[in-house]
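Retro notes - structure team

What went well: the batch runner handled both jobs without manual restarts.
What didn't: labels got mixed up in the shared folder, which is why I'm recording both outputs here explicitly, each with its sequence directly above its tokens.

Job 1
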Amino acid sequence: MDRELGTEGIAEFKALEFRDIAALHFGPGLAIRNNWGLWSGSALQRRLRARGFAHPDDMSEALLKSYWLRLHGYPQRLREQAGWSRGYWRAYRVYDRRRGSRLVCIRVRPDPFGPDELPDYKAPRYELRCVQRVNACEAMWTQPVGTSPRTPPDVLEECATSG
């Protein structure tokens, strides 16, 4: 990544806030997926799959997050990122098999990162990942293990306005 970005690009990337990495999905993330062979079975894709990553989107996101973390001296937590990726796609596979059911929740390992912050080292070992179809909207969220599966009001509101 250092070679690709050059000195100026590295400085710009390092200046980003961690929460801004998600916004790189279609720019640098797309370039990584296409140019580094994450869709086509490259050696890098095979290594990331062997670590447990399930989808090229998650692979490019993990590469970007790991690079940012490395530049800032944090551990990269690839194992945890891969566990989250597997759980995310597993929830969708279960949901696809149960299309007649409107709500599906499964127990998975949590995302090692919150939506806006650095790694959460005190995160619970597991969480429920839930998928539900509301009208034409498909929503996914997480909630603590041991709670009754319930669609959060903001998800219902968002689906009502988008559907």
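Job 2
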Amino acid sequence: MRFLPWLRRLLRLSAHRERALVEKALDGDSIRLVDGREVRYLGIDAPENQDPNHPEWRWAQRAHDVNTRLVAGRRVLLLREQSDRDRYGRLLRHVYVGRTWVNGALVAKGLARAQAYPPDDARAAELARLEARARRRRRGLWGQRSRGLWGQRSRGLWGQRSRGLWSQRLRGLWGWSRRSR
């Protein structure tokens, strides 16, 4: 009788998963399936701006391009948490292509930020760790020298404002750092 709790868990999980074919990526954090349904990735927020003069536009385009390369025309696994749809009628899901967790891949590349939306926050801590690593490694939008997206000022080496590309390269060539003083 020990297998009954395990069997219940397995049946509950299978009710929250489905396979689907992706038609196209709509932006950095949503896709359209071949059957016409739209899916919003759970736990992340990618830049979204259609104005090419806006500083966020470049990162919105890059997030869209990477999302397209990851999922367009592929069969994906969609995993639901608590909520089924958002207020716009889109499915709320974690998306997998093979063994790649697309939500996490976009955050790890610095193309989206972790954003917990309770009650669908089972993987919020994992996404926050991926974002922290992307920030430390200055990946994607966290590597900008200008004012960062979402109102956060981006810093140069050692938490200081960036002094320009050439000074950073010279420091790297000479091995100079604040720690070596």
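One thing worth noting from job 2: Strands lie at 17-27, 30-33, 38-41, 44-45, 75-79, 91-97, 100-101, 113-114.
We'll revisit the folder naming next retro.
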